[in-house]
Hints:
By secondary structure, the protein is α+β, with helices and mostly antiparallel strands.
Amino acid sequence: MRQVADSGEPAVVTSEGSPAPAVGKALPIAIRRLSKAYGAVSVLDDVDLDVRPGEFLTLLGPSGSGKTTLLMAIAGFLRPDKGSIRFGEREVVRLAPHKREIGMVFQNYALFPHMNVARNVGFPLRLRKVPAPEIARRVEAALEMFQLGGYGGRSITQLSGGQRQRVALARAIVFEPRIILMDEPLSALDKQLRERMQIELRQLHDRLGTTTVYVTHDQREALTMSDRIAVLERGRIAQIDTSRAIYDRPGSRFVAEFIGESSFLDVSVADGVCCAAGSIVRAPKTPVLQGRCVMMLRPERLRILDGSDTEPMNRFEGKVQSAIYQGDTLLLQILLSDGSPVSLRMATRGDDAPPPAAGSPITVGIAVSDTVLLADDGTARA
Length: 382
Ligand code: ADP
Ligand code: MG
């Protein structure tokens, strides 16, 4: 729910209908040619990135790909070797962190252990010399927002991990920042709480409308939360797009492997005809280049074919290796006729027929419209 008042400023109401801090107009972030090296090792390599006003953008990548470095450069805790960072019209690359008006949530929360909850949350307001009665009012509103009403007097050490997380979030938004940065804020929480917080954080974002840059190495978290995902690979942005586009149309094998499950088939291309695992295959756009590429098969897009399919399919013959019941889905491991292993995942139902036995022949297929061919050098071909 995003409510925009006539002024264009987001009006904020929590799900319980209680008033919450109204946040200033969201700012776009424009990053140009940002580079950072440690000695001979390049950690950020000429990064260009535009974050739209009010967008939830996630930096996703494996450990060491430069996510934290990029976030710290945006926050001002790290001075890049070169490049520009603008918040709206303003160049901030040389601006001190506290002058950037950013709400920041760190992985370890970075709360002050000697201050109680209210003093932690009120810290950014005291820093900004806000009058005490207003601090009290805004701290209470921020605590309410995170279901911490009445917790102001507690010591940080009395709180659970999830509650500390909420205190860190309350502290990040209490001064109505125009940009919120979060570095793996949920990674210390157990799976159940983490998945609930993913949805809560996204809902919070929708209420506040604040431009948000979020860092994670968890692809499912990124898919769940983001308007767009920027996938980092060794200090470069490999691809930036919506969750859906990144998942359905990865631009490179790296992105395809990092996001979701997939099997890959070697594809040979000759005179515009593509062959994989003994079958001629087609994609929405047939590669123009000769040579080698790979075909990406998402397990849930691969189907058992029984001849009743009406849409154009790429078909493969194979043998079932194993059928694994996983509750919500059935996972089939299949060896295609050329020996390539592929996985097929299908939703289960209470009245399912028994799964195909190991060793039985099987015909599987993927819709031509779902077929993605990728060059093995990392560039998209279809
Ligand atoms: P991520 O957050 O994606 O895991 P980081 O941004 O923390 O990655 O680090 C990217 C790379 O930069 C890593 O290879 C890391 O070892 C290196 N690095 C980060 N900070 C420093 C530093 N202060 N000195 C030297 N190397 C660093
Ligand atoms: Mg990191």
